[in-house]
Write a structure and sequence with these properties.
single chain; Arc Repressor Mutant, subunit A; 3 domains; 3-stranded antiparallel beta sheet; 18 helices; 18% strand; globular
Length: 425
Amino acid sequence: MGQRVVEELSSLFLAEIANPQTRHALEAASVVRRVTLPILSALLPNASPQDAQERIRTLPFVQPERDGLHIHDAVREAIAATLRADNPQQYHAYRRSAYRHFTTELRGAPASDLWRYTADLLYVLENPGVREAFFPSGGLEYAVEPARSQDARAILEIIERHENSVSARHLRRWWSEAPETFAVARDRKGCVAGFYFVFDPKGVQGRLCREDPVTSGWMNHLEGQPMPRQQRALFLRRWLSADSGEAPSAVQAACWVDVKRKYLELRPNLRRVYLTLRDLEPYAAAAEKLGFRVLKEASVPVGGDCYHSAMLDFGPSSVDGWLAQLVAAELGVEEDGVLDCAARELALDGRRVALTRLEFGVMEFLHQRAGEAVPRSSLLANVWEQSYEGGGNVVDVVIRALRKKLGDKASLIETVHGFGYRLRK
């Protein structure tokens, strides 16, 4: 029934478009979030992007916005669904072209435009588990904003309702000493329906993290496995809704959307996210697809309940590199046929070559900036541990090892004399 309705809607939208070039341009544009000349050039390499844009602009269901042309959601989704059903190869080809365009744009985009290209890249994702985890559909009825002092009573009542006495004591202390880390979800009447709190451990008093058994475990993990220089971590200490506690809900969905905004604000320096749950099962499938892993050594008993910890490491290229890998995995894209990011291996003419942690870190960092000259100092700052104080020659050692493993493709890594290295596209 649903598919028939979609097909009928698509037919209605396309019925009066007799020109095949206009129909072709509209189908291509239906797989992306917005329409611009560079995007059309990537999707339709054999057509004039100016001509395609003008054809789309004249359609009654297309609205010009500041960041490009926007096709009405219902029209775009109906046309994309029909294209996917009728011509899956063409639909997949458009998505792959869009992925390559957006990942290229992300490498050189100014900070003010990063969110736009990230949203474009996210739109290419189809996996419902991943899309729902990043932009949940159920949270639109709640507004999330920084907590205010007058929210104390509601926050403390939610804590008392869902936490045991020992855990509640720790959460009350966080609210008392670090209220700026809290955000609340308000319903349409302005009432607090839930809250979460998240922070960079470097931005709060060390004793707070050390005296809370959950965050103390995270601090121990950070010390045992230091992050690369200049990169940061986020501690998502707790989220609770008034009705459902930590369980999935529309309130939790709204909070997660807000957390993802923080991800984007902190790139390119955000490296890890830590979180805790009493019950991992409802989130396990989505968390695994996103790359979270359970930290058994950081799971602790608090007042008779076990609080499990999980951590997501975005990798040397932060949030954007992580998103690009998610999309690439969904589309079956192996960039340049050399690096398989998911397997952390080189893929060379049908054979697989394992990489050490540092080799993978250097290769991934170069890979995300393919075609660009990358200074040794950037590799040191983003791949090596914070405690490392040596010179750039350690980078040269890893590069030599990578070239040896690349074999007859060693020339892909070029030396930029007096500066650093470049991975050829």
